[in-house]
Specification:
heterodimer, A: 244 residues, alpha/beta, Rossmann fold, 2 domains, 6-stranded mixed β-sheet, 4-stranded antiparallel β-sheet, 9 helices, 10 strands, 25% strand, globular, disordered C terminus, B: 389 residues, 4-stranded mixed β-sheet, two-stranded antiparallel sheet, 14 helices, 6 strands, 64% helix, elongated, ABC-type transporter activity (chain B), ABC2_TM (chain B), membrane (chain B), transmembrane (chain B), ABC-2 type transporter transmembrane domain-containing protein (chain B)
Chain lengths: 244, 389
């Protein structure tokens, strides 16, 4: 379970987060939808304990990530905003590194590695160095390293950016399977269709605030629109720049 | 945890061709550079080159010509154009000086009259004074031999001509002569510890951030202190390997430097090598901590490179200046870099009195290194440093 309460954060004079609160529950895929610069990444960074908020708390399975970030981070797998692979390591070494950082050792680690490599179907590239991987292959390696320690919570920051249709479908299948297992999945995006197709709950964020919360249907009904995209525009105000 | 972090850092660096190349360059260049400079300076200062002049009317004074030849002043025909001429297929430089014995030189000498030698040279040419004085010295020596013989023949003591005798004594001992040169050698080895690890330091800090993997690493359940310690260990490892190679290479090249030409003796033995090596290990850690701190605070790989280029002047030039001035102060033995420079300098000169200050200096170096690591770890908690803002 992931929860942020009343986050306030400034970058200089710009108010990035303005009393932002939301909750992502286990067994659900929760989407954070918002235009570029709405504060999605900032909110997630506060939740990881990477940034400090001026006010408010970020809780991971009830552990405050601002107070004990290391304990809190043990319970999450992260697919970050910007991800860089270690180009000189093989995919397996890369995943093994993150498994080690989460405290996996010896046989247990090897087993976890084999499992996650099989699950994501990357055995063919596992022993190749990451340089020269395609975007889709990179995405899979990052997902694998986020899942290798089997966290209860998975946070993905704009995961489908730059992915082709096939890779996006694979990602979608993985997320749905994790949901079946009762994991908590939080994912941010500015792509409407993706969120509408995948999420049980959508949190619409604009200007560092929550503009609306609900299922995609509820949001459409509430705004009286038939298309989710129109509902989104209505929710965040028509003057906002959005990416379809 | 540190083991996991270190293993990855090490794998990442050892597969980076640029880091390996830079480390090797850092290790190999200083000793080779040193050996080349030394050999060049020693050859230059001890050997006398052949001087080619035109000698006209040689048959008038075969003795003088023979004496000139003994002093490596040789005859060559004046080249028609330019300064060079061919001799046995080699292109040599002519000094453009002409020495002419008068047509009646032999006859006048025989009669005991003043005989004339004409020296034709461009006095404004660079180095011509030295060449002319070399020729004059030979002629004067011939002259004074002649005078001595003539006076002796007349029963007069030649010492009447030189009532004062100047006795020259060179007080420099072989070891003090070599001290400055060998002190420089110590500085070169110090530099290796820094230069060998520079690329690794930048690559795993500013480089890792530029490749977007630093942020993800900091988001894992590890403390920034563990991250920085692992990176410092890896960086220090490269610095230590560089310094080790540098010491080994120095030991190998020293026999090839013609130190004996300058009357120097220096024995780079195993014990000296090992002692220097032990002194350099804490320095490698310091170099790693220092360069990581600089690189983490730079915005990009390039910026880190230029920062380090400037900051590295401190450990390179200050010891060099101290070495040239031969400045000694007990307090210096307790400051990182200087402690090592003073110790190595004294070890090489063979006038190390006590190891105590250097054990203290090494411990202080390690403590300071950890303080810098702690500082870097703390600054990694700031979003500015992590995100490179």
């Amino acid at each position: 379970m992931l929860q942020v309460n009343n986050l306030v954060k400034h970058f200089g004079d710009i108010k990035a987060l303005d009393d932002l609160s939301f909750l992502a529950e286990d067994g659900q895929i929760t989407g954070i939808l918002g235009p570029n610069g709405a504060g999605k990444t900032t909110a997630l960074r506060v939740l990881y304990g990477l940034l400090e908020a001026e006010e408010g708390t970020g809780l991971i399975n009830g552990v405050d990530s601002q107070v004990s970030p290391q304990l809190a981070r043990k319970e999450i797998g992260i697919f970050p905003d910007k991800f860089g692979l270690y180009e000189r390591l093989t995919a397996r070494e890369q995943i093994s590194y993150f498994a080690g950082l989460h405290g996996l050792k010896g046989k247990e680690k090897e087993q976890a590695l084999d499992d996650v490599i099989e699950k994501l179907d990357i055995a063919d590239i596992a022993d190749r160095r990451c340089e020269g991987f395609s975007q889709g292959q990179r995405m899979k390696v990052i997902i694998a390293q986020a899942l290798v320690h089997q966290p209860q919570n998975l946070i993905l920051d704009e995961p489908t950016r730059g992915l082709d249709v096939m890779s996006t479908r694979i990602l979608r299948e993985i997320l749905l399977e994790l949901k079946q297992q009762g994991k908590c999945i939080l994912f941010s995006s500015h792509v409407m269709q993706e969120v509408a197709a995948l999420c049980d709950k959508v949190i619409v964020v604009a200007n560092g605030k929550v503009a609306a919360v609900g299922t995609p249907q509820e949001l459409c009904e509430r705004t009286g629109k038939t298309e989710f995209e129109d509902a989104f525009v209505a929710l965040i105000g028509s003057d906002e720049g959005i990416a379809a | 945890m540190i083991k996991t972090l270190f293993t990855k850092e090490f794998l990442d660096s050892i597969r980076d061709k640029r880091s390996i190349f830079a480390a090797l360059l850092g290790a190999f260049l200083p000793p080779i550079f040193f050996a080349a400079i030394m050999t060049f300076t020693l050859e230059e200062s001890t050997s006398v080159d052949e001087l080619y002049i035109s000698i006209e009317n040689q048959q008038q004074a075969p003795h003088v010509v023979a004496l000139l030849e003994q002093s490596k002043i040789l005859h060559a025909d004046m080249p028609e154009a330019g300064k060079t001429f061919e001799l046995d297929g080699e292109s040599l430089e002519h000094s453009k000086i002409t020495l002419t014995f008068a047509d009646d030189f032999a006859q006048k000498m025989e009669q005991g009259q003043k005989a004339t030698i004409t020296l034709l040279a461009d006095y404004s040419k660079k180095g011509s004074r030295e060449e002319i004085s070399r020729i004059k010295t030979v002629v004067n020596r011939y002259q004074s031999q002649l005078v001595t013989m003539k006076l002796t023949a007349r029963g007069i003591s030649p010492s009447l001509l030189s009532p004062i005798h100047i006795e020259e004594n060179d007080t420099s001992s072989p070891s003090s002569k070599s001290a400055l040169i060998l002190g420089m050698l110590g500085v070169m080895i110090l530099v290796a510890a820094f230069v060998s690890s520079t690329n690794v330091a930048i690559d795993c800090s500013a480089g890792e951030r530029e490749r977007n993997s630093l942020e993800l690493l900091i988001m894992q359940p590890v403390s920034t202190l563990q991250v920085v310690i692992a990176k410092a260990m890896n960086t220090a490892f490269f610095g230590a390997v560089g310094a080790t190679l540098s010491i080994v290479l120095t030991a190998l090249v020293i026999p090839f430097i013609p130190l004996h030409k300058a009357g120097m003796a220096f024995n780079f033995d195993l014990q000296l090598g090992l002692t220097i090596w032990l002194l350099l290990l804490p320095l490698a850690l310091f170099a790693a901590a220092f360069q990581l701190a600089v690189a983490f605070h730079a915005k990009s790989f390039k910026e880190a490179q230029s920062y380090i280029q400037y900051t590295i002047m401190v450990p390179v030039f200050l010891p060099m200046v101290l070495e040239i001035m031969n400045y000694k102060n007990a307090a210096l033995s307790y400051i990182p870099i200087f402690a090592q420079q003073q110790a190595i300098s004294q070890l090489i000169r063979g006038d190390l009195e006590s190891y105590l200050p250097f054990v203290g200096g090494s411990i202080i170096t390690i403590i300071v290194s950890f303080a810098i690591i702690k500082f870097t770890a703390n600054s990694l908690k700031s979003e500015k440093v992590v995100l490179g803002l």
